[in-house]
What we know:
By secondary structure, the protein is α/β, with parallel strands linked by helices. The chain has one domain (6-169): Rossmann fold (3-Layer(aba) Sandwich), CATH 3.40.50.720. Helix content is 51%, strand content 14%. The chain has a 5-stranded parallel β-sheet with strand order 3-2-1-4-5, with helices on both faces. It is globular and about 50 Å long.
Amino acid sequence: MTRSPVVLITGSSRGIGAATALYFAKHGYNVCINYKADLANAMSVAEKVKRLGLEVEVIQGDVSLEADVLALFMHIDKVFGRLDVLINNAGILKLQMPLLDMSAERINKVLTTNITSAFLCSREALKRMENGGSIVNVSSAAAKTGSPNEYIDYAASKGAMDTFTIGLAK
């Protein structure tokens, strides 16, 4: 079991997630990098964390799937024996189009990836944070603007994330 605090960032092989992983590593955290498909980028982020002298685990998993979430958290339990911070960052944004052209498949994929994943990961994190910890949910200004005729499905998922965050905090 490690003495340094441990952070899990979902969707951390690139973008905001990768930058967040490096930020936490620079502040003394061991880092769990979660990725769905881009192993090369995930390994690149991991190498940067290692250069800072911290432990890092690269864990593949689709956090919109409950079985993958359970496996992810069991892996963290086995390697680190603790989790101090969860960053719910995983998300997708599809091509811009009006609602009239969106399929149910597209809408469900965006909602499942962007919000169901946060529910599942937060549930598992809370089980491991009985003595304290932090959960950070990444949202978007689209939650307030609604992104009409662009990606209303994404905006709705981020609005749900904002509401989920309020409920989780109370």
